From TrEMBL:
Function as written in the Swiss-Prot or TrEMBL entry: Recognizes and hydrolyzes the peptide bond at the C-terminal Gly of ubiquitin. Involved in the processing of poly-ubiquitin precursors as well as that of ubiquitinated proteins.
Transmembrane segments: none
Protein name: Ubiquitin carboxyl-terminal hydrolase
Binding site for Zn(2+): C186, C189, C206, H219
PANTHER family the record matches: UBIQUITIN CARBOXYL-TERMINAL HYDROLASE, UBIQUITIN CARBOXYL-TERMINAL HYDROLASE 14
Disordered: annotated span: 716-748
Organism: Linum trigynum
Length: 812
């Protein structure tokens, strides 16, 4: 095209060019539909109207959808690196940041141009011949902090705390106070949650009152105003990782670090003796774990792993403590349900066309992007050599660059403050949160919901001393199993090892010489189904607390069964401990014997007595021991009460399972209603009619209003968060006033009870909040290790060291 005509084309489209404001999000590091970036073959195109970025294959789709024709094109071309560039010695367990490992990244030459679609008419930039508005817009885009970088910095900044000016010389008063590990209560009121321990005098007081009346009664801050005692720590946030404890400075009005927190807590009898061996920081402890046996075994360090490239073998870049997400997603996208939904049956272009104006915030779009990134093989190629003197560890034949799941993480974590941070997280909690988000995203078309392939029904039969029974039914995504150490198959070896240890008077033993208990998976499954005594069970037949027997089983068998091994326990002195144990997991399991049978002939159900009795029992049924134990793990008082009530005080394990699956409920922190104005259990008919006018069925509307205390907004949220609510709630209790039904399994996958192991998520470290996660997946008849961007044939998969085990049902 002639220069004059090209200039006229550009000027005719100036109305579609915007100069970004400081509040605009500018994407210039990665395509919002694919994982192309400025270093990709076609470079990156930034829409100069929306400031969204697109790769070469996707920019045309954006033009078709929006009509925006003007783009800033960025292309980076690798430079050769001088052979004499010195290497730096790392001081931090990090890659690519100051003080971390030198990742020997290549340097790139950057070129810019202005491109007008659909003809891809190109203008060099910078150039004085360009219209002033285009020059100003392009300069502003290049100067702007990229949206991806902004989000990452915000996450890091949110975690940054300063050392309190009052910590080092804090004076403590000996009042003879000794703080127990649980059962706390505000000294000035009856509050048992949101409690703060004043580090000067040992007073336990409730936190601030929120604007809506929830929270505490301001007793902690009032105590500071009266005494001037500056620092307090929130009970329930204290673990062996003291840096994670929530310490607040009232004079500084901010969360702070207390370097002497262990000393300040021990003053009141809180034992942190396990931390006295060393004063290493969390990062230093993580560095130290590189020589740990588990670390080497799970990562298969020292093994000459054969790298794999191609479809389904794409690594994920660690975004900063994001290995919990990477390991989980590698296994999830190895399933037929997720690969079909977001790859085989969902084209990138279709997902983009149906996405909102900003595809970066659309879960369906970002899941489709992640699915295509992981499974297409486009990005699973050998990384280019960094330089001519690179060793084999960085050569093109052994390493891949992987894809960074930044946009996916931002979307899936948007509603969860912890996953939005840069801290390490529990892979189990992320897996459950992720499936909840997928279920919500597919509420309009549940048949296409891939999360249902993991969902199954659990039935608990409870028989009290009256001889009558009740059946609790709920849905879950995971089967959480205790590890019965007394069922270890190598007891003689253990006894001999412990005797040797005792005789050697504490002499250090290498990790390879340590004898660990070996517990068969069958014992863990049997423990789940075994009868269990429940003390202080509230019997509606006796109208009193009594002893009951609980037995659990499954009402349906999912396509994919996930087993969670409970390796983390709380010891005396508030010290969380990871069980040092092996679980022998076979390749094939059969859980057919675990199917529940439901109400049997001759059984008599516990009486219900109607909504009034239910509400009365709710007021007295929350077992204090269960509530206190859950609160000691850091959960709030009201959620713990609801967990105990909704599981009929079946036990801490059952209450914890309920709590983990309902933490995102909109009304989880709402006070437990003691009855509406119309009487206990009675709902306002006008509210029912309002929900019916929204298109909901009357039965669903009434159920939602009862579950939400009559609040229409909360009831609406409840319906969307419980798409199966028309059949039954997540927790359905069968008593004499209701007929046992199989509705709780309606729509869920079901089949035989024979399963094959295909995925393992293993954890390395002392707690789920630190350390590292690695995935092993059975693909094409061989085990493959996914360790962030490292993908290779597994030589010795750690089948006995998993944290989460993924099984696929074997269909006859």
């Amino acid at each position: 095209m002639e220069t004059a005509n090209a200039q006229e084309l550009l000027r005719s489209n100036l109305s579609r060019v915007r100069i970004p404001e400081p509040t605009n999000r500018v994407y210039k590091s990665e395509c919002c539909v694919s994982f192309d970036n400025p270093r990709s073959e076609g470079g990156l195109y930034i829409d100069m109207n929306t400031f969204l970025a697109f790769g070469k294959d996707c920019v045309g789709w954006n033009y078709e959808k929006t009509g925006n024709p003007v783009y800033l094109h960025i292309k980076q071309t690798r430079k050769l690196i001088p052979e004499d560039r010195p290497s730096k010695k790392p001081t931090l367990l990090a890659i690519g940041i100051e003080g971390g490992f030198d990742n020997n990244e290549a340097e790139y030459e950057v070129t810019y141009s202005i491109v007008v679609l659909p003809g891809h008419v190109t203008f060099p930039f910078p150039s004085v011949e360009l219209p002033e508005k285009v020059i100003l817009a392009a300069d502003a885009i290049l100067r702007a902090e990229g949206a991806e970088r902004k989000e990452q910095l915000a996450a890091w900044t949110a975690d940054t705390k300063k050392v309190s000016a009052h910590a080092m010389d804090l004076k403590q008063i000996n009042n003879g106070v000794v703080i127990p590990p649980s059962g706390w209560k505000c000294v000035k009121c009856e509050k048992r949650d949101n409690l703060w321990l004043n580090l000067t005098d040992g007073f336990i007081l409730c936190g601030r009152r929120n604007w809506d009346g929830t929270g505490g009664n301001n007793h902690a801050i009032d105590h500071y105003k009266e005494t001037g005692h500056p620092l307090a720590v929130k009970l329930g946030t204290i673990t062996s990782d003291l840096e994670a404890a929530d310490v607040f400075s009232y004079p500084e009005d901010d969360s702070v670090l207390d370097p002497l927190l262990a000393q300040h807590l021990s003053f009141f009898g809180i034992d942190f003796s396990s931390l006295k061996k060393t004063e290493m920081t969390t990062a230093e402890r993580e560095l130290d774990q590189n020589i740990n046996f588990d670390w080497n075994r799970i990562q298969e360090s020292g093994q000459d792993l054969e790298p794999i490239f191609g479809p389904g073998y794409t690594g994920l870049v660690n975004l900063g403590n994001s290995c919990y997400m990477a390991a989980t997603m590698q296994v999830v996208f190895s399933t037929q349900s997720f690969s079909s939904r977001y790859y085989k049956n969902q084209a990138l272009k279709l997902a983009f066309e149906t996405a909102p104006s900003d595809p970066t915030v659309d879960l369906n779009m970002q899941l489709t992007k992640l699915g295509h990134g992981l499974l297409s093989g486009k990005y699973s190629v050998p990384a280019p050599e960094v330089d001519d003197i690179a060793d084999s560890a960085t050569s093109a034949s052994t390493k891949q660059e992987g894809i960074p799941p930044r946009m996916f993480k931002a979307v899936v974590a948007a509603s969860h403050p912890e996953f939005s941070s840069m801290r390490q997280q529990d892979a189990l909690e992320f897996f459950l949160h992720f499936l909840d988000q997928v279920e919500l995203g597919n509420v309009a078309k549940p048949d296409a919901d891939p999360s249902r392939s993991f969902k199954f029904g659990i039935e608990e039969r409870i028989q009290c001393s009256s001889g009558k029974v009740a059946y609790n039914r709920r849905h879950d995504y995971i089967l959480s199993l205790n590890i019965p150490l007394h069922e270890a198959t190598n007891k003689e070896e253990l006894e001999a090892f412990h005797k040797t240890q005792k005789d050697s008077e504490g002499k250090d033993v290498s990790s390879n010489e340590i004898v660990r208990p070996r517990v068969p998976l069958e014992a863990c499954l049997a423990n789940f189904s075994a009868p269990e005594e429940i003390q202080d069970f509230y019997s509606t037949a006796l109208r009193a607390k009594t002893m009951a027997i609980k037995k659990a089983g499954l009402t349906s068998f999912p396509d994919y069964l996930v087993l969670h091994m409970r390796k983390f326990v709380m010891e005396e002195g508030w010290v969380p401990k990871k069980l040092d144990v092996y679980v022998d997991v076979p390749d094939i399991i059969d859980i057919s014997h675990m199917r529940s049978k439901g109400l049997q002939p001759g059984e008599e159900l516990l009486p219900d007595g109607g909504p009034e009795t239910e509400v009365e029992s709710n007021e007295v049924a929350a077992n204090d021991d269960i509530v206190v134990q859950l609160m000691s793990m850091g959960f709030g008082h009201i959620p713990c009460q609801k967990a105990a009530i909704n599981t009929l005080n079946a036990g801490v394990e059952e209450a914890m399972n309920w709590l983990l699956s309902h933490m995102d409920d909109p009304d989880i922190e709402a006070p437990i209603p003691k009855g509406s104005q119309g009487g206990p259990g009675v709902v306002d008919q006008s509210a029912v009619q309002t929900l019916i006018s929204f298109g909901f069925e009357e039965e669903v509307a009434k159920k939602a209003l009862k579950a939400s205390g009559g609040d229409i907004e909360k009831a609406t949220d409840w319906i969307f968060n419980n798409p199966g609510g028309s059949g039954s709630s997540d927790m359905d209790t069968t008593t004499s006033s209701s007929t046992p039904t199989t509705d709780t399994t309606a729509g869920l996958p079901d089949g035989g009870g024979k399963y094959r192991l295909f995925g393992i998520v293993s954890h390395i470290g002392t707690s789920t909040q630190c350390g590292h996660y690695v995935a092993h997946v059975l693909k094409d008849g061989r085990w493959v290790i996914f360790n962030d961007t490292k993908v290779g044939v597994s030589v010795n998969p750690p089948k006995d060291m998993g944290y989460l085990y993924f099984f696929e049902r074997i269909n006859n």
